[in-house]
């Protein structure tokens, strides 16, 4: 499931379809509040959310445990490492990280403002999807426990066939294609460099949910806007999304999510 040779073609196609250089910065979307309507600004077509660290509070200890279980250094991307293991070794490695994720999912806590934001987006008719480097079970557990009445379609996980995980833009481009809209009409909300890079490369606007571990990404060139709580997006979207101009700063990926 993590070894998908056919996805190389999709990744190449995804990067061909992505046009971040043609997406003007700072990014702008028309206000969602009807009385603030601006006809000269493009409408928001939907929002893609990361899961761990975005919809729920970060569980960064998982990554330390995963790297210890796999005997890899902090600089090595976990999914990349597993994908490049000999085929006979992959199932055991996959099960090791899934076991850690299954334990962690029992302790998931929702982000402050999660339900308020989702209720608002539903009221405004904004489509929502998920794009995560997690596997399906922890994602569904979070939705069942904290967002049982909300619909996210599609849900892209690391096990979705034919789609390379973030930071590749393939997942976001797939969502845009499923919705029949340009990726430039979307916002990617996440907490990692993988989220920001995937969104930016796809041509989407990006929103960083700031926490104690990712402050260095505030000024990253792939980050369009920063928030400290999810429900801060309500005011931003009601008044019209306007991204910030950021310096040309780079960062590194982290973990599975």
UniProtKB/TrEMBL annotation:
GO terms for molecular function: phosphatase activity. InterPro entries: HAD-like_sf, HAD-SF_hydro_IA, HAD_sf. Residues 16-37 are annotated as: Disordered. Keywords: Hydrolase. The keyword Hydrolase applies. This is Putative HAD superfamily hydrolase. It comes from Aspergillus ellipticus CBS 707.79.
């Amino acid at each position: 499931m993590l070894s998908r040779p056919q996805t190389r073609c999709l990744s190449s196609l995804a990067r061909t379809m992505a046009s971040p250089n043609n997406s003007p910065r700072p990014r702008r979307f028309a206000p969602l509040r009807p009385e603030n309507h601006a006809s000269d600004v493009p409408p928001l077509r939907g929002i893609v959310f990361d899961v761990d660290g975005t919809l729920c509070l970060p569980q960064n200890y998982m990554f330390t445990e995963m790297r210890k279980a796999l005997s890899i250094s902090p600089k090595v991307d976990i999914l990349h490492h597993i994908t490049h293991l000999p085929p006979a070794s992959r199932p055991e490695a996959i099960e090791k990280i899934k076991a850690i994720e299954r334990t962690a999912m029992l302790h998931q806590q929702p982000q402050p403002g999660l339900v308020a934001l989702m209720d608002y987006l539903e009221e405004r008719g904004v489509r929502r999807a998920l794009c995560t480097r997690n596997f399906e079970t922890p994602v569904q557990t979070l939705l069942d426990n904290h967002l049982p009445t909300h619909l996210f379609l599609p849900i892209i996980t690391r096990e979705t066939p034919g789609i390379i995980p973030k930071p590749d833009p393939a997942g976001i481009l797939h969502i845009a294609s499923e919705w029949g809209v340009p990726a430039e009409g979307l916002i990617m909300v996440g907490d990692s460099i993988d989220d920001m890079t995937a969104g930016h490369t796809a041509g989407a606007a990006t929103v960083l949910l700031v926490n104690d571990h990712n402050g260095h990404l505030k000024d990253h060139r792939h980050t369009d806007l920063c928030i400290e709580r999810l429900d801060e997006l309500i005011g931003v979207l009601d008044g019209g999304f306007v991204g910030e101009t950021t310096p040309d700063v780079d960062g590194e990926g982290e973990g599975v999510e």
